[in-house]
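Appendix B. Raw example, untouched.
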Amino acid sequence: MLGTIAVADIAAALVTEEPLAQDMVPRYAVASYRLEYLTTDADGKEVRASGLVSLPQKAPGAKSPVLSYQHGTLFRDADAPSNNAVASEAAVVLASLGYIVLAPDYVGFGASRGIPHPYLLSAPSAAATVDFLTAARTWRGQANVADNGQLFLTGYSEGGYVTMAAHRALQASGSAHLQQLRMVVPGAGPYDVQATMDGLVELVRAEQPVIGALIDPGFLRYLGDNVQHELRRLLLRALIPGDADVVYDTRFIDRFLADDVGYIAEFSSVHDWKPNLPVRLFHGRDDSSVPYASSASTLRAMQQRGAGDLVSLTDCRAQPAGHIQCVVPFITFMLGQLAPVAQDL
């Protein structure tokens, strides 16, 4: 157990720290636990990973819905959920509203620090979340923690991507967790990795006119070694800052630079499939970190596969509607989507 945080401390953190959502009022103290479990890395090898479980402190026997919250891109291990169970941590704040919150650290963080983080690789991204769902369900049974049979998935940025990967994996495998899953709310995720990387290349072209003049999208594999190396460096800098203390697996960038569209579609992108449950997308049109085109492409692909009204895309209304500016509006949107469905809060 990592400790219990009082309602007053969570409320104070919402005032003194960056707000997590508009008009958020914590209702419960929150007890947090770190769970370790087995999952797989980018090469399919079994690894020991970790995650945070935050529990609202309700009356004995009271039930709660389960909210699996996949965090956005992190670059320091200290910020991983199970290393940061403080009053302002998203998982803790969301648990104070009445949800049992699960927040996987992902491979490369927490118990698996030192193993390359499988960034934008769909199978290990999904596994880290799905395996944590299973581990947390087993732990709840042993700890006599009652859920109400409802499960929701959500996340922003990389968390949106991991959320989508996990949802697709749950559906493809016919997982028992599907019986509880009610709604999925992903925000500003690079679901269409090809569109995302194309957008980042355009950003590099705009910011670096000299190298930009040498880049011809769709013909990246023909670039000379020096230009390839510099473009790779600039793309990495756009995604991962230099002071990161975790290791990132960047094979998807190498495949992209080799114009390996088939690899990106098979092993990275998570946008082109038909969900059988509501998916509520959210994105800002001014987002330069994860292009809006990723969500637009996802909506289009899913509807072309017959998803219809099960899938929707809501625009962030912040001014400007950039990646960071839309975090708070996303959490507000997500809670608003869950409100009519979530019970026992």
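End of appendix B.
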